[in-house]
Amino acid sequence: MSQTxxxxxxxxxxxxxxxxxxxxxFIEVLDLTVCALASLLVAFVYIEIGAPYYxxxxxxxxxxxxxxxxxxPLWVEYLLVFxxxxxxxxxxxxxxxFSWWPVKLVFINAVIWALIFLVDRIFGTxxxxxxxxxxxxxxxxxxxxxxILYDLFITVMVRYYYAKIRNKIKTLLK
Length: 174
Known about the structure:
The structure is a single chain. By secondary structure, the chain is mainly α. It is built from 7 helices and no strands. The protein has one domain. It has helices spanning 3-26, 31-48, 53-68, 74-82, 85-92, 100-122, 133-169. Helix 1 (3-26) packs antiparallel against helix 2, helix 2 packs across helix 7 and helix 3 (53-68) runs antiparallel to helix 4 (74-82).
């Protein structure tokens, strides 16, 4: 594929990812869903085009979302977790298999703690408002569980892409 086609495809997928994010900005119940869908576009670029285009799709989608919805946490979620994860997942899964989950959990816990620090200390707003301290622990565990499910979602979708879709669109990507 020529450089021009790679750039055009990356720009098109960035625009599509931004449309997903705008949809999530308008329909707030879909915010995590559209982040996950937009991250699949990054995974597609990683598989079909490679570096540096997947970095560009991730950053440009994040920036476009931030420009369109600066007050929304949606673009921050995409920037820090959803958009970068398909890229990092590919690198993590090059490590020995026994180290995958510890590395993945270290990543998400570092992001959670960074967000808690950022929101609590810098913005002065409690990240998790809960009357009972046990609720904070439960929410923390649920965030980890949601991340594990998201990681499995990415795995299943990439496998589905390889098994069912890739051969059908291969001629379009030449």
